[in-house]
Amino acid sequence: MTPDQALGIAFSFFNEVGIVNQLSSALLQKRLGNGFTVAQFSVLNHLIRVKDGQTPMALASAFQVPKTSMTHSLTKLEQNKLIELRSNPKDGRSKCVWITEAGKNYRETTIASLSGDIARLSDKLDFDAIQQALPVLQQVRQILDEDRNED
Amino acid sequence: MTPDQALGIAFSFFNEVGIVNQLSSALLQKRLGNGFTVAQFSVLNHLIRVKDGQTPMALASAFQVPKTSMTHSLTKLEQNKLIELRSNPKDGRSKCVWITEAGKNYRETTIASLSGDIARLSDKLDFDAIQQALPVLQQVRQILDEDRNED
DNA sequence: CCTATTTAGTACGAAATCGAACTATAATAT
DNA sequence: ATATTATAGTTCGATTTCGTACTAAATAGG
């Protein structure tokens, strides 16, 4: 495989990833309604999928966004009582982000509401193929993630 | 496959797509520097990858963004002479978006500058697996795209 | 035709995102 | 210990994104 071929494949791949992300985010945004953004929901989801109790800085790093953007998202989530910001006992400079029961419920309800969309598309989507593509995405994610941490 | 399994697979898939998109967009943003955004570059790329001469409305629809957002992106690109906005001879209300030579050159140069990133990752990335995952992404894209057009 | 409705784009204000500067605390060096 | 440097978070202003209202042109119905 020549470098040019690799670049072409990678560029096509990331291009498709971008489009699929736009389309799926739009689906999610519809379900979220006007209350929250996809970014805010993603933080909530991350707190469950990975863990909560992390600092805002750790979340900003995980999402590859400036800490000021994360502060904004967390403020909105806290105002709606979906998360709690407590002081960090181990570091007086920072805080810890904990998801509330209301936050867990909101996440569960939102995911469940997406089942209608999946059901509507279930006879068209090839879930076996999607399942097989998942490890590829995870591997690419891991490699890109390690790469950016090599600063 | 139960509906719950399908929902789980789909949710994991779209979640990974979102993360990979964040990471790859960050790589691209680094190469773009402070001059342009990923959104603006994506428009430029679309004009080549699909076709130019389209109306701003068609582009807004393709990118699933409000027309006001597209107007803003196009204004920035036009100010930097990477595109031209001409009146539409077939419709006095609308315009046509054409990429300039400078726009083509900028896109080519940017893509070429990404070859360094790909080369750095080339011994870790499995391009064969990525190539095999590409049709899956394209199929999912097509299905989501058709679905949203059924309004 | 002529009116009513729809559509493309713009103007404007609100919210989200981001970078730079600042404060407070922690870690490090001497 | 004390001074220096680094880090976490906030504040503030600029850019991007977006929804609503508006204008101009095309389409549809009578």
Task: Describe this structure as you would to a colleague.
Two copies of one chain form a homodimer. Chain A is mainly alpha-helical and 151 residues long. The first copy, chain A, has a domain at 23-113: Winged helix-like DNA-binding domain superfamily/Winged helix DNA-binding domain (Arc Repressor Mutant, subunit A, Orthogonal Bundle). Chain A is built from seven helices and two strands; from the N terminus they run ααααββααα. Chain A has helices spanning 3-32, 38-49, 56-63, 67-79, 101-113, 115-121, 127-148; strands spanning 83-87, 95-99. The first copy, chain A, has a two-stranded antiparallel sheet. In chain A, β1 and β2 (95-99) form a beta hairpin. In chain A, α2 crosses α4 (67-79) and α3 crosses α4. The two termini of chain A are 28 Å apart. The model of chain A has no long low-confidence stretch (mean pLDDT 93). Chains A and B meet through α1, α2, α6 and α7 of A and α1, α2, α6 and α7 of B. Chain B binds a DNA duplex (30 and 30 nucleotides) through α4.
Query: Cα distance, first to last residue of chain A?
Result: 28 Å
Beta-strand content estimate of chain A: 5-15%
The H-level CATH homologous superfamily of the domain at 23-113 in chain A, spelled out, is Winged helix-like DNA-binding domain superfamily/Winged helix DNA-binding domain
The shape of chain A is: globular
List keywords for this structure.
homodimer; 151 residues; mainly alpha; Arc Repressor Mutant, subunit A; globular
Compile the SSE list and pairings.
Two copies of one chain form a homodimer.
Chain A: H1 3-32, H2 38-49, H3 56-63, H4 67-79, E1 83-87, E2 95-99, H5 101-113, H6 115-121, H7 127-148
Antiparallel strand pairs in A: 1-2
Chain B binds a DNA duplex (30 and 30 nucleotides) through residues 34, 37, 39, 55-57, 65-69, 71-73, 76, 88, 91-95.
